[in-house]
Queue: 4 jobs
Job 1
Amino acid sequence: MSKPISRKMPEELETFLKSFRDKRKKFKYRDMISQIPAHNGKSLTIDFNDIAQFDTELANQLLIEPEEILKALNQGVYETLKVENPTYAEKVRKDLRGRIRDLPDKLTLRNITTDQLDRLISVEGMVVRASELKPMADLAAYRCSKCGHTTTEEQAGLFLKRPPSCESCGDARGLELDEKETEFIDFQLLRLQELPEELPPGQLPQYSDVDLTGDVVNTARPGDRVVVTGIVKAEVEYSVAAGKLRVFRSRIHCNSLESVGKDPEDLQLTKEDEKMIKALSIHPSSYERLIQSVAPAIHGFETQKEAILLQSVGSPRQNLPDGTTLRGDVNVLLVGDPGTAKSEILKYAARIAPRGLYTSGRGSTAAGLTAAVVREKSGLMMLEAGAVVLADLGVASIDEFDKMRPEDRSALHECMEQQTVSIAKGGIVATLNSRTSILAASNPVLGKYDPYRNIADNVNLPIPLLTRFDLIYVIRDKSERSHDEQLAKHVLELHRKGEYVTAPPVDYDTLRKYLAYAKRITPVLTKEAEGRLLDYYLQMRSSGAEDMITVTPRQLEGLIRLASARARLQLSEKVTEDDAIRAISMVQRMLETVGIDVKTGKVDPGVMFGRPLSEKNMLGTALDIFRNLEGTGKREVEGKVFVDELVKTGEFAQDEAQRMLAQFSRAGAIYEVKPGFYKKL
């Protein structure tokens, strides 16, 4: 049983603040308090372990009955500051706070039970909502309309509390709030959700609202991972029909807030870990060993596994002097037949990335993927982060990418190129960071991938979105006896043994640490690498290249990202010529699979980035034929005649000619003047 709160508690805490010495025998908190005026500060951060070292009973009391002790701590900070700087102490007296950090145990939101009510706890989670900053009444002043006397009432909770009656005349009905005499503090409401990696399978994520006051407001944004230290309170729930409910929900009154893990590369690694990682990187076949260690339960897919590794580390982000940012994240799209382990690859990529998140496009909206503005029960407008914001500086795996509604899918355009999410709604105009690598999976339109149709006809995705992917891979379920036999043996062995058929060269935990460490590397392009990439780009751009049409600088930037990511993966400070050759090889391999124009059988990047050259030629031919049929008199052209003329050229089959007519009509190039007859606009 805890001892009652002593009336001398402020003096005891003041003694602690003035007398506590660190390992170097310096007055730790006295020196920190003396620096508060220099930074226009309003709080003092105190390590819980220091309080426990000073007085164990006091530390236990702080955990069990925190409210009174924290008030006493605020008073102790004020008294100590008053000795150092009385003028500043008086100026910030009502805002001065003592903030506690580094509690011995950190809870998860799932572990907050009724046992923690009214106690001081520390909990780690992810900020998914943040309200606008609002002034909140701390000490409300009520003026009596009858006698003019002002009565003050200390406030707690979200709802305004008024005094029962006037202190002077006792009148209870004539009290009116005096805003000028009321003392306000800054207030913000956050919603904290448990971390994705801590979520048990098949369960909804737990969340809790967090009240922020004073100088901790605006220190966290949606997508940040934070440790909140505060007091757990029970908040009453309301029902429109029944009024107050017996069921309450927990709420945390924040005392201190620390942002942790903003950067995945900040993962704490021991010296032994770093030694092991460096030894792994200098192995003669380290690159191949890393590829073999990705998703060992899935047979094959070496090319896709390499892409996932490059995506997990990415390339350094470039910030130009004018504020322009060049993205370093690599976006990958997998298009394949059902049952080819696309979803498993996506889930593994989300797990192995230093920060990863898996979601499905079928059940995702634009708000769920990017950001939204929602109105809380209290009336506050809150900015809610979506999947790509929560996965900031990591990988967002989006399954069933083609099942999203077009308006929801279009919300990703800005995110995938500019690395931001902009929102303007409910009076809130905001831009959130979404420095996220997108790994998407899509099924073919007809159920199975049709090799006789171009990629744009096989997937239900617009061309502008396709161009934002650095790598696109087609995974086909082809019936080949040798491959089928190997795959079947792999699956059977996996189920029989209950473990990997062949142990991966690098285990899962080591691989995650390796990737986190690799993200710290900032490789620089060498002249040799620049020359290779330039030559390949100019070759692709050359009008004399028979088999290709032009590509854009976006694809050149993609090559640079891939080459830099490979250098990172090898812990190299330089992007070498070999890195550039490998990046070019990956892009060329992609072009030779998804960049083939099925009409000509030749590599044509226009298949992915617009229209293939053959289709453009066919369009030109069709337009010329229509103009000839119109003649100089611009007469009506019968649709049947136009189709027959297209077929006569030998370039069009009957169904292709019919589609061309329909395409012209949909595009508005021609219009139907009467049934079966058309004119050109």
Note: The longest helix spans residues 66-84.
Job 2
Amino acid sequence: MDDYISINKIAELKGLKSTRAIRLAINQGKYIAREVEVRGGKSYEILYSSLELEIQDRLDEEELKTTAIVPFENKVNFVSENARLTALARVDIVTALYNIRKKYPTKKEADSVFLDLYNSGMYLPQIYKFVGSISIGTLHRWVKTFENYGTDGLLQKRKTNQQGEYNTILNEEMKQIFLKYLLHPNKFSIGKAINLTKHILEKRGYENIPCNLTFRRFAENFKKNNYSKWILFREGEKAYHDKIEPYIERDISKIEVGDVLIADGHVLNFQIINPFTGKPTRATLVGFLDWKSTALVGYEIMMSENTQCIASALRNSILNLGVVPKVVYQDNGKAFKAKYFQNIDFDEAGFNGIYAKLGIKSVFAKPYNARAKVIERFFLEFQEEFEKMMTSYIGTSIENKPAWMKRGEKLHRDMHNKLTKNYIPTIQETIKFIDCWLDYHNSKPCPNAPQISIKQCLNSVQKQEIDKNILNDLMMKTEARTINKHGITFLGMHYRSDYLLDLREKVFIKYSLFDLSKVLVYSIKGEFLCIARQVEKVHPMANHLGTVKDMEQFKQQIQKQQRRFKRVKKEFLKYFPKEKAEAIEIEQGEVIEIEKFEQTKTPLKRKLNFREQQMNIPVFNADYEKYEWLMKYGCTNPEQRKWLEGYLNSDEYTNLYADCEHNEKNVFDQEGVYKNE
């Protein structure tokens, strides 16, 4: 069939006197057409696939008539291969009989001899093995049929009906009653439908009701010849679309990597630790899959109803892919909302603005059409290959939960607890596990390019220059936090920046669960303030028990504190210089005399003698407390001086006091008393 059909031909098939109506339909966009030059002007040709189905059928029928080797009207009915071979074997038998008759004076004698020879299996053994024994009556019938009708006459004659027809003793009323229950959406079994039908027929006065086998054969035949009705009536529209309706074949070669991303969500079938509550929960993975390579290029894990997770997943996808997609093919808005969000209006969630600002066209999938989204197949692989390997796997449903979760399975429960220690991963650990599996998955052959792997197909994309600031502004998740002594506290971690030292107010932070080493800090008005980085915890006894790395980290932390303090001190001195401030003159030369008050001098405390000091020595809980006390009151005996000399050479003193300025000039007096100059 040609791709394009002339409008004159289409008008003929539709029974129209002119092409005016067809031209009008073309202008309205009903058909896909092209303009062609004809004698006397211009005309149109319409694409075959855009025509109505009945017109396509009539065109196909006409093409079949013109191209058939045997004239279409005189074509024989279809026969099976076995029937054809049987007919040819019968012809061979009749031909062999003709040869035998030539050797005998009478047909009766020849036919008797031939029949004995044939039925013995020695004469024409292959044909005998295929056809079997025959009687003299059958032989004569075959001879007569062959002489009158030729080979076609010897074909096995079977009574056939039109497609869908079935010879049954059930009348129309019986059929209607039976089909009422058979096609009921509650999906009655055939046996139950038969019982209900016979009950109704008895009430209506039927005496000779057909047996159950008759009804069952009718039901089986109806299902074979009316399968679409069977599925639609009993199982619904979705089942009809999934099981009956053929899907559109897509040519993936016409798109490139990064052109189309397919978005959808998947409820994880294993538990993770919620970073906000610290409790085990089932999270939702929102992912974006590249249609060309079938690689999951970006995802986000959603702990609660938060539409920002979708935007964050898109951000991760663009950063990983290195390309802003042209189209995002996503789940139907209402379906996605019903599945994952209960109290969010998607029309007001800001997605349209995000896509528009990035130049992305959003396309929504047909509701309940899982075949249109290849990401559904990806999630099936994800479930079988990854989720079932997780120690916290809990199954896809109550029916499919693992054995250790079922009631009474003490053996499996004990074994599970022993092997897993009831381990539940954190969200950061889960991300690492998923990334490892994705690396394995991407090493598989690409379904749309089997000669290369998914990773190779993905790497063929021509990367673009991506402004990360725009992506961060649009897509990172936002939380409100108050700055305190520790900086910003988030998910049990502290984030600090020198810029935050002077601030004690509410700010907004933008973050990604994929990189919690830093957060972006914004003012309440939306102004960018700084990047706060996660505080690295140091070894509590770095110089005693830590490695070289631990000691270096501790040293850097001390140096950072000193630099920060010096910087603040320098700023402080700008406002309070050492020079004395001059007196302030009041208008009209009046000077306010300020009475000088004698400062009450604090009487000096009498220095305790040796015995008094010994009597007042407190009980120390730690060495540094004893050191601080001796720094204040001094050493009064050789034992204290010896202890102090040893402490000054200790690692604890080095870690706590070595860099402090007030300890740089400590001396002993002549009496052995420790003083500060």
Note: The chain has six domains: 4-74, 81-154, 172-243, 252-390+425-458, 476-534, 610-676.
Job 3
Amino acid sequence: MGPCFTGETTRITSAYWITRLLIALLACFVVSPGALAQDEEKKKTEVFTLGEVIVTADADTKESPAAITEITAEDIERQNATNVGEALKLIPGVHLRQGRQTDEYYVTMRGFEQDKVLILLDGVPLYIPYEGVLNLSDIPVQNIAKIEVIRGNASVLYGPNSMGGVINVVTKIGSEVPTTALDTKIGDYDTQHYTFTHGWKVKNLSYFFGASHRESDGYNLAKTYRTPDSVNESVVSAPSNPSSLAFKAIAPDGGRRDNTDYDRDAITLSSTLDIADNHKLGLSFEWYGEDYGVSPSPRYREHKKGFFYFPRYYEFTDWERYVINLSDEYKFTDTFRIKVRGYYDDYYNVLHSYDDDTYTTEDRVGPPSGRSVYDDYTAGGELYAFWDVLPCNSIRSGLSFKRDVHKEHMGTDPYDELVSHTWSYALEDVLRVTDNVSVTMGASYDFFDKKKRDQPAAADDDAGDDVHALDPQIAVSYDPSDTVNLYASAARKIRFPTMRNLYASGVLGPQGDPNLNEQRSYNYEAGATWRVCKSVVADASVFYSDVKDYIYFDNIIGRFEQFSDARIYGLELSVSSQIARNLFGRLSYTFIETQVLSDVFLDNDTHEDLVFDPDEIPYHPEHKIDLDITQTFNFGMSIDVNGSFIGSQNYLDYVNPNSTQTLIANEKEFGSYVLLNAKVTQQFTGNIQGYVAVENLLNKDYQDLYLLPARGITPWIGIKLEL
């Protein structure tokens, strides 16, 4: 796309200028009492490929005024990542958190929790409808071509729920040269991973097939781990099942973490059909089936006043998900093209809550044990149009709709049903003012319709008001030279409340609030990319987010609340270099500060302050340093060493001292720690390679969630055969 102002006289229609004026007027809404709220589009040019996001970053950096990181299949293999979560661990601004179980991974991005980060699988939003999050370990990495990570402001075409950014996982597709591979790796505690992949392009048809099986008896805790004395001291006797209060599930001297076994299977089938040079169809199918244990959580607050504590003994005996994605891409002319997508995502699980660590009975009264079933689905569609109005100007528009349905029942009870509809219409204009200056303006109108039914056949009940928002954006990109790109953006982003936020219930009654509104963030970002020389690239970005109506679970009240203000700001620095012919390195630093600016914990009745208000949003390290070094040798060996320094981070510990009737929230701090991983690969022949790898090489004892210790040293040995 050429510049608009080159001295040539160009005839421009009145319709064109009217369109430009309307977009500019929408952008004016950015100026609000909170600040200039605009959603930088992270302008990405369209690529008609099934596996790409709506607006991809395939153009050079100058055409992408945003902080974008692309993780390739080679990066994933070199770092020995076994799941999508692990593949994200070295990205600036991203913090990987291990959940309740060995392979349960979640991310935070630029201070925003995962429910505020849009996760896509080949452009399809992927999450559990009720909770709004996704366990990133569910997606096997062997089927992935690349992972595209947009930190901060993403295009308005992505729609709502992307306050912290966008992560798009792109699966592989066949090439003209057929490829077949078998990868086998084993670890301790009878851990076994097997993967088979095959892809090919036959005339106009490209296809890829992948199948994997992953199983394990659990994982190792660091040998220095000890159950804190405070855990046992905080336990009080309870009448319902005193034996369940024993903390046998927390290994006091390291060793295997209880109930961390898993058995996971996955199938991927993706294909594209070139009907003509200007017309392509795409179809993909993903299936995941698994059963796994959940390592015991040592605490459970039974009653607001009594504060009895129980470990929770969970197992998913049936967990299944499949995603169907159908796309049609058509180029009418050299200047106008459309893309249509339809998808269906079905999710089902059976969760058992047992009485104790024998995992045999489900008879406990308080807190109740038993069987819980989710039967959910998401169905949606998207229509996008791309119009190069002039050589210097492009207009992009998108219309999307999705229907989320959550059905749940306990034991033999009938299903309760929750339904929501989300609409989004987006329009953006990309104007290349000169050869080195471009401006992007746009806005999206997002609508959220929520319904609640006590049973599928019952009438809608207590659904709360519909929620809608207009979210404008603006971005500017400037290239002072061929080696330097500068960009800045402003955006307003929103996150609609999840079904859990709205309708969650607990032992004592409702935990959700059907009248919660959208969360809003006014995001500002500026950055630069500098190609220092042929072998060195440096990136820097600063960001600031003013967050309004933040939704937070108040552990004192025992329900979701919405408080006024929070502030997030930070800095990201990174440099990558081909240090020598056979030596490559990447180094990055992230600083993130989170501030709670108003009261979080308010009494439901009096709305007065309770005992404690945190100063920071919990579980966000202030400092993070990532390093990745790869050395290759002429005899077929490569060594990759990567690691992270994770700075201290706050968490909240709710205690009931001396069995009193007053709950106290203590703000505590996880100390900083260093994680180090290594992998040695040897290419034996042209198609056979073997490797050994060690995660957490220093056997560091650390936690990302209070009283949920992460895995200790983890060895791997594997072999890969390519045919």
Note: Residues 14-722 form a domain with the Maltoporin; Chain A fold (CATH 2.40.170.20).
Job 4
Amino acid sequence: MKKIIIIAIISALLVAFFAFDVDQLLSLESIKSSQDQIAEWKNAQPLLVGLGFLGIYIAVTALSLPGAAVMTLAAGAFFGVVWGTIIVSFASTIGATCAFLAARFILKESVQSKFGDRLQALNDGIEKEGAFYLFTLRLVPVFPFFLINLLMGLTPIKTLTFFFVSQIGMLAGTVVYVNAGTQLAQIDSLAGILSPSLIASFALLGIFPLIAKKIISSIQKKKVYAKWNKPKSFDRNLIVIGGGAAGLVSSYIAAAVKAKVTLIEAHKMGGDCLNYGCVPSKALIKSAKVAQQMRDGEKYGLESTTPTFSFKKVMARVHDIIAAVEPHDSVERYTGLGVEVLQGYAKVVDPWTVEIALNDGTTQRLTARSIVIAAGAQPFVPPIPGLDDVGYLTSDTLWDELAKHEEPPKRMVVLGGGPIGCELAQSFARLGSAVAQIEMLPRIMIREDQEVSDLAKSALEKSGVQVLTEHKALRCEKDGDDKYIVVEHAGEEKRVPFDILICAVGRTARLTGYGLEDIGVSTERTVVTNDYLETIYPNIYAAGDVAGPFQFTHTAAHQAWYAAVNSLFGDFKKFKVDYSVIPWTTFIDPEVARVGLNEQEAKEKGIEYELTRYEIDDLDRAIADSATDGFVKVLTVPGKDKILGVTIVGTHAGDLLAEFVFAMKHGMGLNKILGTIHTYPTLAEANKYAAGEWKRAHAPEKVLAWLEKFHGWRRG
């Protein structure tokens, strides 16, 4: 109701302004013709005239009415430079703040609720640097005064900040206009005030905030480094802590541009992905998939057979695969690329110094202009009572431990319903283990759409996995040699027996042990960084799992480029990390791959979308391969072919997704995919057919109707 009243009052004032030709009274000609009369009033009642002028100016700016520029000139003519500047400075700021508050009260809630996701970057920028941004806008008169007031009202900037920054930012322009107004009789138009030289002066004023920002940044740097003694020279340009994906890429890039770089790794080169995650799990998945294909021989016109195998050999193959990939990430390879590799434990002593406890027992200290923290993450072990007593495995330990087993574990519990848990559960079930997968949430793969979760659950159950959703792990127990995990479901407890329990409930960043806590680098769930991957120390960066927000090998490598380039060249040019197009794949069978938004996220964020769907059971190659489970689902901007997100479920979904990732990254829509030749018969045709489904839904019906008539006419 309050909004309606305010809108009604503003509307009435606007109608009155134009209905009674008030706009004509605020014209340059009118002010010039009334100059003598107003001068008489001012001489007779200076305070009253001053306050009256102040009130009218406030009203004009608050209502975003035309005439503020003319009134600024008039202030100079009537009150002189000093008093004219004071009156206009306060009146314009008060009026601008009123317009700012009106826009905030009337529009902010609805605008932020509807476009909050799209405005998030702007909101974050305003929160961090709103004062500088506003200051710049106020200094440069190219930007409309009223528009700045209204738009800033829709942002999170504080009212007092808006008031004082506006007052200071508009002061230079106010002085120029008021001073010009002292020569009102010689001014024929507003254009006469803004000469090329004056516009250039304003443009130079607009650079001032950037200079001020540099000054403040310099002050902040001095403050954060105050208690440390910076070396006069450095041993290295860059020191990288951690030999996983982020560390390897960071050091390689540094070496490629001829920087002197040292990479420090305490354990195994290649990090978690090579040794414990991506590589061994995909090797296991392949063996398990072949075993399942043997059981499904009839699908291919063959005899179905129960696979016979040595589990020990399967696990040996996993280790052989790791060994085959190891040279790609080895000390020898990176040494050959120009990277100094030291094996030991690194500790940051001060913002430029790293102490290395080498594996040979010696200690070494090195200084560097910049440091990149790429320490990775480790499995999270939930605090379940009795877990230590029964024993458990994680992705870090299961490959070595299970390599000792002659047979697959008879009974296995996989704790966790995320991608890793699903991949392991399906693989071990296909290799003969009786697997129970426990997830406390209503469904597995909770980040995906409901139908994707349902399909994944169905696929796992088809492989023999007992999927227990909405089961909360309470404790672990032993009864003689038997082990149990006690879970709660629907208010009742039950015991799930197991021989092997695998914790796959996520990973947590490695935040301690290498000195960050000693020098005051902020850590929460990850190392806290800004958009450039800088910590509180501008020369110390973080990348990969330790920095978040994603825990993918490909995003770690992506961040590494920014960390390396910013650390080496940030004094000249820095780059914000681009997270706009991040793909990922869950390698169950069938695979689940996604980039951008899915329906679930679009609805949560209030983003309008149009859905296009193509069922893979219609694809010739999928039919030929007897791999018809799945679909391609594309979200687009309503009425346009711009891609908002894609979910693909099916064989080789992760490979098929790449075309959509490329299209989204480079601003191409479904029409471009439709116009691209795809080899027949391939699974990749699914992408083209999905684009075709969108095109058919947007066929120009009216044009087609006229074409039908045209062709009928041509037939005679």
Note: The first helix runs from residue 2 to 19.
